[in-house]
Amino acid sequence: MITILLVDDEPLLRLGFRLVLESQPDLTVVGEAADGAAAAARTAELDPDVVLMDVRMPGVDGIAATREIVRNSPRSRVLILTTFDVDEYAFPGLKAGASGFLLKNVPPDDLLTAIRAVARGDAVVAPSVTRRLLDTVADRLPDPAPDGGPPTSRGLDRLTERELEVLEKVAGGLSNGEIAGELVLSEATVKTHVGRILTKLGLRDRVQAVVLAYETGLVRPR
User: Fold this and answer.
1) pLDDT for the residue numbered 137
2) In sequence order, which residues have a C-beta less than 8 Å from that of residue 12 and are 6 or more positions away?
3) Which CA distances in Å does 86 have to 83, 90, 139, 184, 202?
4) Given CA atoms 113, 114, 118, 124 in this order, what sign does their dihedral have?
5) What is the value of pTM for the model shown?
6) Selection from 148, 145, 115, 153 nearest residue 29 by Cα
7) Strand, helix or coil at 50?
8) Is the pLDDT of residue 144 over 50?
9) Could you give the CA distance from residue 23 to residue 21 in angstroms, rounded to a whole number?
10) Per-residue pLDDT tens over the stretch 64-122
11) Alpha-carbon distance values, 130 to 26, 86, 135, 142, 217 (Å)
């Protein structure tokens, strides 16, 4: 059974999500919160598998709440809900440690699939969407090497040459299969490389790896 905490300041939206989620035999809503402070407290109390997190709330917003949850309740994974496909909250939310983001008007089947994916440790932002997201917010990313020098390390020096190649491809929006084709590797080998990259860099999923690749300057936006 996958346990879920609903976080939204609109009671009717929480009710709607609850009805959709509890129609499934493997999903259960264990609690609700109407703001970020309550979300962090309820997560610590209930230890849900997934926190379905709105971002625009009074008081403590969803970004700050996500950051606190990732820090203090790392087993619970955060899935951010956003009003627009790419807005000013999407990148900060992923950077804060969320495992992905969805539109609030997502079809119910897609929502259910995303929650199950996050619960098993996957990211729900497709590689192509991640690339488009980061390109969209590129002007807000720090420039770690304005003189054109090498990228900021942030642990990249712990990666092998092949792992750096794989990370560049991941940040470029390629799937494991596409990376395997370009680097002439098996898909299983690429998956192993991605796992090692995440472990060495202390990252939760490939979304966080993409964020780090952009922030360090390993990959430059278009």
Assistant:
1) 59
2) none
3) 9, 6, 14, 33, 26
4) positive
5) 0.69
6) 115
7) strand
8) no
9) 5
10) 999 999 999 989 999 988 776 555 666 677 778 888 778 788 889 988 988 998 888 77
11) 28, 10, 9, 17, 16
CA dist 206 and 45 (Å) reads 28
Q: Tell me if 195 sits within 8 A of 203, measured CB to CB.
A: no
* Per-residue confidence (pLDDT) for residue 17, from 0 to 100: 93
Cα 148 from chain centroid (whole Å): 29
Query: Looking at 56-60, 64-68, 216-220, which range is the least confident one?
Result: 216-220
From start to end of 106-220, where are the E strands? none
- Say which residue the tokens 């709105």 belong to: 54
> Which residue is associated with the tokens 């192993």?
192
Lowest average pLDDT, out of 12-21, 43-52, 113-122, goes to 113-122
Q: Which amino acid is at 16?
A: G
Pairing of strands 77-82, 50-54: parallel
Pull the structure tokens for residue 218: 């390993």
Question: For residue 99, what are the CA distances in angstroms to 67, 83, 95, 181, 196?
Answer: 12, 17, 9, 26, 18
**Cα separation of 173 and 82, whole Å?**
21
Name the more confident of 192 and 99: 192
The amino acid at residue 42 is R
Coil, helix or strand at residue 155: coil
